[in-house]
Amino acid sequence: MAATTKSSSGSLRTYLITRLLLVIPMIWVLVTLVFFVMRVIGDPIESAFGGRLPADQIAIRRHNAGLDRPLLSQYWDYLVGLLHGDFGRTLTDNQRVSSVIITKGAATLELTFWALIVALSVGIPLGRVAARYRDRPPDVVLRLSAILAYATPVFFLGLLLQLLFAIKLGWLPASGRASTNVEIAIQNVSPKTNIYLIDAILYGDPSYVIDVIKHAILPAITLGLLTAGVFLRLVRVNVLQTMRSDYVEAARARGVPERRVMRKHAFRNAMIPVVTVMGLQIAVLLSGAVLTERTFEWQGLGNAIADYIIKRDYLAVQGIVTAVAVVVAIISFLIDVIAAIIDPRVRY
Amino acid sequence: MTTALPESSQTEIVREQRLTRIPGLAALRATAGFQRGMLLVGALLVLMFVVIAIFAPWIAPYGFNQNSANGVDFPTLAPPSAQHWFGTTVSGTDVFSRVIWGARTALEVIVLAVALSIVVGVPLGLISGYRGGWLDRALVLITDALFAFPTLLLAIVISIAIASGQSSAAGGIVSTAIAITVVYVPQYFRVVRNATVAAREEPYVEAARALGAPPRVVMVRYVFANVVQTVPVIATLNAGDAILTLAGLGFLGFGIEPSSAAEWGYDLNKSLSDAAAGIWWTGLFPGLAIVLIVLGVTLVGESLNDVLNPVLRTTKLPRVVLPRRRPESAASS
Amino acid sequence: MSELRRRRSRDDQDASVTAIEIEAVQTGPGDTGDILRVRDLRIWYAGTKGPVQAVDGVSLTFRPGEVLGLVGESGCGKSTLGRGLMGLLPRGAAIDGELVFAGTDLLRLPPKQREKLRGAGMGLIFQEPMTRLDPLMRISDHFTEELKVHEPGLSRKEARERALEALRALGIPPTRYRNYPHEFSGGMRQRIMIALALALRPKFIVADEPTTALDVLVEAQILRILADIRVRFSAAILLITHNLGIVAEACDRVAVMYAGKIVEQGPVREIFAEPRHPYTQALLRSTISLTTQALHSIPGAPPDLVDPPPACRFHPRCPHAMHVCATRQPPQFGESGHVADCWLLSDHLTVADRQPLRRAEVAVADEA
C-alpha cells in the first residue's frame, strides 16, 4: 500500500507515545502493590528460615538482604533496582531472580505461544461459522462447546487428555518439555534461547525436534482450547453485530456478493474488539499457564513460582510476580498499538 | 359495540401489564429455542448444586475425611463399587462423599465472595462514577492495573498475604473467600462505574438535577436503578470464574486446608499421581462436578446476557406466507 | 411465494463483464421505454404479532429521466418499498406481484443475478450517510471494490479514473481519494455515497430520504445533484421523503402512500393544485408556510400494519368517510396521469353506500 498521508502517521505516533506514557503508571501501581503486599506477609527471611537457622544467622541474612532498613528506603531501592533490571535474588537457591525469569520465562513463553496459536486458529474461524449459521444446529453445537471449554478447569482437561492420549493410547508423552536425553543434549546449543523448539532446530537432529513438538502438543491444546472458547463466543457476538450494521447493508445495496460482504466488511470490523480482548486473554492464559505447567510438569515460570511459594521463598515470588506485572503492562500497550494500526479512527 | 369489559378480564389485563413491567421478563418470555433451553438447563444445574450443597450432611454417606466406618477401614484406591459409588482415594476416603462435601465448600466460598464483592464493588463504582474527580481517576488506574493481572496469581498472592497475617486463619473458608473477593472487586467496580458514568449523562438525570434533587437522591433513585440491572449478569458469570479460581487455588495447594473442608481442586491435584497408574475415578468425578456447576452458572449468565442484549435476542418469527389474492381487494391498474 | 433458495453457483468465476444474463420473460404489451414497472406488489415481513403488511398491492411506473416522489407518514411502508425494489428484504419476508426491470422479471431472477443488478442496474442512496461507509476502508477501496465486483476486467488505472470522475462530478477533489470515511463531514459522505451509487451508471435509483439527516444548505446541494443526474444519465429516480417541500422542488410525479397502499399518484403540479384523496388533502393542509394561521393535523394515528383497517385503510381518520369505505376497497379513479383510490370519486354508489360513517364508529376505530 502506498505511504499514508503525513497527518495520519503523525497522529499515530502521538497516540502511541500517549499510550506508552500511560503504561508507566500502570506498571508502577502494580509494582508498588506487589511490594507492599509481600511486606504484609511479614519477614521473608523469617518465614523462609525461621526455626531452621540460629537467630544471629537470620539477623545477618536480614541485614544482607537489606531488610532491616526503613520500609520506604527499601521500596526506593527496590524501584531503582527494577529500573536496572535487578529483580533481587532468591533466598532458597541463591540465584538472580532475573536469570530465573529469563530461563524459566522462555519455557512459559513457548507454552503460551503455542496455546495462543491453538486458540486463534480454532476459535476465530469457528466463531465466524457460528455467526453464519446463527441459531441453527452448527451454531448451537459450537456455542455449547465453547461454554463447555470455558467451564472445564485447565487441569481437569489436562488430566483427561493425559489419561486418554498418554496413558491409555500411549501416543503422546504425559509430561515434561522433552525426553531426558533430548533435554540434556540441547542444553549445549549456542546461542541458547531455552525455547526448546528453536534450540532443537539449532541442534540439528530432526528426531529431537519431533520429540519437542510431541511434548508440546497436549499442554498447548489444554491451555489453548479454553481460550479458543472465549474467542469463539467473542467473534460470534461481534460478527452478529457488524452483520447488522449500516455499512454492511450499503455494501449489499451496491451488489457486493454476500460472501465478500461477510469477509471484508462484517468480519474485519468485528475483529477490532476481538484484538482488544485478546490482550485481556493474555492474563487468563498466564493464569492457566501456571496450572498447565503444574499438570504437565512443564518447567516454566508458573511451575517455578508455585515451587517458591511452597518453599516460602517470598523474595523470589515478589520478583517473579513483579516481572509478570511488567509483562502484562507491556502486552497491554502492544495490543493498543495493534488496535491503532488496524482501526484508523482510534488515532484521533 | 361494547366498551365495558367484564371484571375478570380487566384484572387479567392489569396483571399482565404489571408482569411485563419487571425488567427483562417480557423479553424472557419472548425467547425461544436455544436461549430458553440454555437458561432452563443452567438454572436446573445451579438448583441441583445448591440443593446438594445445603443438604450435604444428609446426602453424603460419609464424612469428607472419613476413611473407616464401624471400625473397618475403607479400601484405598478402590474402583467404583456398590459401597463406594465413585471409588476411594489413596488415603481411603470416599470419593462420592468428597464430591458432595466439596459442593458445600464451593457454595460457601462463592456466596461469600460474590456477596462481599458486590457489597464493596458496587457502591464504590457508583460513588466513583458519579463523583468523578481524582478519586475516580485513582481508583480506575488501580482497578485497571489489577484487572489486567492474571487472576490466579493475584489470588495466590492475596491468600498468602492473608494467611501469613494470621496463621490460624490460614486455608480457611473465609480467608479464601476474601482472596477471591479482592481479585474480583475490580470487575464489579469497573462495570458499575462505567454504567454510572454513562447514566450520569442521560437527560433524565440532568432533568432531575435541574429540578433540585440532591446528589444522593439522584444517584439512588435514577442511576442506581438502571445500573443495578447489569449486576446479576456479572455476578453469574463471575461466580463461574470464581469457582474455577477456587479450584485452581486448591489445585496448587493454596486454598482450603484439607483438614477443614473438602475441595475439588485439591482432589484433582492428588489425582494427578493416580493417573499415571491409570486410576481415573479419583479425578474424573470432582472434575465433572466443577464442569457441571460452572457450566450451569455460565449458561444462566449467558442467556441473561443474550436476553438483555437486543442484538442477540432470538425471537421466534414465523415465516410469512402471502395469502392468495381475493378479487375485490386487488387494485386494478 | 417464499424466498428463493440461494443457489451455490460458480458464477463468481464467470467472466461476465457488464452483460447480465437475463432470462427472457414474457412482458406485457406497450411498455417499451419504462425502466421499471411495478404491478400489485406485496411485501409482507415477519413481526412478533403476525405478518406486517408493509406494502400491500402497490403499482408504479418509472420512466427514464423522471423523478417520482414517494411521500407518506413514518411507518407507511415507503422504506420497505424502496428496499423491496432493490431486493434487500429482511429475513422471513415474502414478496409477490410483478416487478419488471428493463424487460426482466426481477422476482423470478435467481439471487446471484439479482445481486449483479444491484449497483449496476439499480442503485440505492441511503438516509443516514454517517454510518454507511466501512470505517476500515478508504474511499478508494470502496470504489475499487464496487467496480471490480461488477466489471472484473477493469484495470486498476481504469477503475481509479472512473472513481475520480464520479467523485469530481460531485465535488469531491482527487486529493481526498485516499482518505478514510471518518475524515469527511456528513454532507461530503452523502456525496460520496451518491458517487458510489452512480459509478456504474444505473438506470434506476432509489433515494431513501437522502437529505433528512443533513442541514438545509447541504440539502439544496444534494437536490441539485439529483436533478443533474436525471438529466445527464436519464436515470429514473424514486425519491422517498416525508417532506412535501422537496417533492414540490425536485419531483416530476408524486405517489402518496398510506398504510402500505398508494392512495394517489400523478404529476406534482396537478396533485398540489387539485388533490383528490382526503389523505393527500390533509397532508397538504398540514404543511406550514409563511401564510399559515393555524396548525392542522390529522386526527388519530397511523394504523397497525399487522391488522390494518378493512377496505379503505384511511376510513377511520377520514373526515368524509362513507359507509362503503368501511366495507369495500375503493378502485382507482381518474385518467392515466392523475389517479386516486377513493370512493368519493365514484359516480355509481347507492344511497346506502353514501351514508356517512357514524362518528362513534370512527372513534372506536380510533382507539383500536
Protein topology:
The complex is a heterotrimer of chains A (348), B (333) and C (368).
Chain A: H1 6-40, H2 44-49, H3 55-64, H4 71-83, H5 97-132, H6 137-151, H7 154-168, H8 180-186, H9 196-203, H10 206-243, H11 246-253, H12 258-296, H13 301-310, H14 314-342
Chain B: H1 7-21, H2 25-30, H3 33-54, H4 56-59, E1 68-69, E2 72-73, H5 95-131, H6 133-148, H7 151-165, H8 173-200, H9 203-210, H10 215-227, H11 230-252, H12 264-276, H13 281-308
Antiparallel strand pairs in B: 1-2
Helix pairs in contact in B: 3-5, 3-13, 5-6, 5-8, 5-11, 5-13, 6-8, 7-8, 8-10, 8-11, 9-10, 11-12, 11-13, 12-13
Chain C: E1 36-45, E2 52-62, E3 67-71, H1 78-86, E4 94-101, E5 104-105, H2 111-120, E6 122-125, H3 139-150, H4 156-169, H5 186-198, E7 204-208, H6 216-232, E8 236-241, H7 244-250, E9 253-258, E10 261-267, H8 268-273, H9 278-286, E11 339-340, H10 351-354, H11 359-367
Parallel strand pairs in C: 3-8, 3-9, 6-7, 7-8
Antiparallel strand pairs in C: 1-2, 1-4, 4-5, 9-10, 10-11
Can you walk through the features of this model?
Helix content of chain A is 77%, strand content 0%. Chain A is mainly α and 348 residues long. With 333 residues, chain B is mostly helical. Chain B has one domain: MetI-like fold. Chain B has 13 helices and two strands, in the order ααααββααααααααα. Chain B has helices at 7-21, 25-30, 33-54, 56-59, 95-131, 133-148, 151-165, 173-200, 203-210, 215-227, 230-252, 264-276, 281-308; strands spanning 68-69, 72-73. In chain B, a hairpin with a 2-residue loop joins β1 and β2 (72-73). In chain B, 44% of the residues are buried. With 368 residues, chain C is of the alpha/beta class. In chain C, the strands form two sheets. Chain C has a seven-stranded mixed sheet, sandwiched between helices. Chain C has a four-stranded antiparallel sheet with strand order 2-1-4-5, covered by helices on one side. The interface between A and C is medium-sized, with 25 and 32 residues.
